Amino acid sequence: MARLSESDVLGIVLQPTDQTSETIERKLGLFSVVILSLSAMLGSGLFVLPSLAMMELGGGEYPLGGIWLAYLFAGLVILPGAISKSELASAMPSSGGAYVYIQKTFGPIIGTISGLGLWANFMLKSAFALIGFRAYLWVLQGILGISINLDIAVMIMLSLIVGINILGAKSIKKVQTPVVLVSVTYILFVCIWALATTELHWEAAMSKQSLGQDWHSFSSTAALVFVSYIGVTKIAAVGGEIKNPSKNLPYGILISLVISIILYVFVTLTMAITVDPSNYVEDGHSREDPIYIFALGVGGKTVATIAATFAAITVLSGSLAGIMAASRFLFALARDNLLSALFEDVNGKFGTPHWAIIGTGLSMAAAIIFLPVHDVAEFASGFNIMVFVVINLCVLVLRSSVKSHWYDPEWKSPLFPLVQIIGIVGGSVLIYAMGMKAIIGGLAAIIIGVIMYQFYGRRNIQQEISPWETFRLMLVNPEEVENRRCWAAFHAADVGNTNHLNLDEFTAAMFALGYFDPNNQQNLLTLKEYFHKADKDGNGIIDAEEFLVYVKETSF
Asked: Following CA atoms 201, 206, 211, 215 in sequence, which dihedral angle do they give, to the nearest 10 degrees?
């Protein structure tokens, strides 16, 4: 067997790839995790998307009020992905998110594609939030009796957001959380007031007709609102700051997801049964300010004005944080030598990746100017669904190849692999339901990612054996997998690069392979006996060929 290259050996590591930095103080408890995760979820999905979803459910011809069920279904479909990402986050609590999980599981080419998809996902969601800001700004200018060019105002606001991100405002997340929570609390009070004082029309949301013409219209609506839950796992990016991450991270993600599902269902159901769904449409097009229309219908102009103000501030803060998150994917790709080093360039004065931020801002401007609002939401949801399908695949691959790789999560998904299979199937159904736009968006990310990798990334990275390659080999050539694992263990134990092992190094290699328990003293005597049997020429050392032959022939 030919000797593997050094990079190949490094690809089958026996220790976790990410160790939590000892310099970061772990100060976020379970409550903080839940609040931060909720603040990342409850934004444009609540303040802009409901009216678009109503029209989608009606086949684009008329609005229907059964969107609460689409929000519920989308939340249930994302649940397996949230569970899988919780497990991945517990294995890599300081890793920084889905891009790293996918890149470390499937290798650099899939990592490039996923990194671009995630960047596009967050960029489009931020653009969608600014489109919502424009709609609420239009409402407020009418109330205030002023006239401004909304498109220019949005571009100016986008420029300010880019500038603030370059300046490195550390309080972005601190501002976003109270803004979102206050806004959502206000909307909940409006909902309760509406239920207590307004005539309820349950048939608008509960009848068979209100749930869409057929399965396709319902599933495409669920796929559209999927973007509402994208923030559920954002908290994983700050895993290094969470106390007891193996417990608080997964439980925080799952608790916040359940709460957000309940909130989305409650608010959208109330919107449909208290205000006629036709009010959320104007000239055959869904309005982009549904919360204003809802509050106006149940509470009058003052209540609606306050709601519009909160909505405008909330979606703006979401866009502010979203561009920061999106730009970090370009930065991470450049850091891993999969994208031009330009995007890794950090501003010397402000300490932020300014070119990554500027590139994201320009892309958002193009999306706002050239893409219809429905397409922006659809593309964002499509990318998000694809990412969560791959996240479920990550857990399947890593669990299957765990003996050969570093994967050792502190919290494991229940009902493995059933949960992951359900997530993959459910996500695939939603992608199919979205139609060609989602497929075209996914293909665009794949094609651009492959081109970038072939012309740039491949020449600038060290090739490693990924868990995916191990998983694939396990299906077609399991003997080769074990050979590679043994070869990696041999070289990991051969600390002096002498291409042979003494007794202590042989013992370390056998422990690393998992054949013996290092805590059992009796095993040390047994391994000494095995060592002498493997040392055929009796020279006190075992070379690579002796090691591999002996391990292969001996049953442990």
From this structure: -170
Q: Which of 4-13, 39-48, 218-227, 473-482 has the highest mean pLDDT?
A: 218-227
Cα-flanking dihedrals φ and ψ of residue 282, to 5°? -140, 125
Q: Measuring CA to CA, which residue among 322, 300, 257 is closest to residue 72?
A: 257
How do the residues of the chain divide into helix, strand and coil, expressed in percent and rounded to 5? 75, 0, 25
* H-run or E-run covering 241: none
Count of other CB atoms within 10 angstroms of residue 30: 16
Q: Which amino acid is at 482?
A: E
Distance CA 234, CA 43 (A): 14
For residue 14, which amino acid is it? L
Q: What percent of the chain has pLDDT over 70?
A: 85
Report pLDDT for 7: 36
Residue 349 burial by Cβ neighbours in a 10 Å radius (0-12, 13-18, 19+): exposed
Q: Using DSSP bridges, classify how beta strands 285-286 and 542-543 pair: parallel, antiparallel or unpaired.
A: unpaired
218 sits in which H/E element: helix 215-225
Encoded tokens for 550: 């002996």
507/490 Cα distance (integer angstroms)? 10
Closest CA to 184 of 366, 66, 313: 313
Which CATH number is 6-455's, of 1.10.287.370, 1.25.40.280, 1.10.630.10, 1.20.1740.10? 1.20.1740.10
pLDDT band at residue 154 using 50, 70 and 90 as cut-offs: very high
**CATH superfamily ID and name for 477-553:** EF-hand (1.10.238.10)
Q: State residue 9's pLDDT score.
A: 35
- Tell me what pLDDT residue 278 has: 93
In the chain, where are the structural domains located? 6-455, 477-553
- pLDDT tens digits for range 160-198: 999 988 887 655 666 777 888 899 999 999 999 999 999
Residue 474 has a pLDDT of 67
Residue 505 CB partners (closer than 8 Å, separation 6+): 493, 494, 495
Q: Find out whether 234 and 37 touch, Cβ atoms under 8 Å.
A: yes
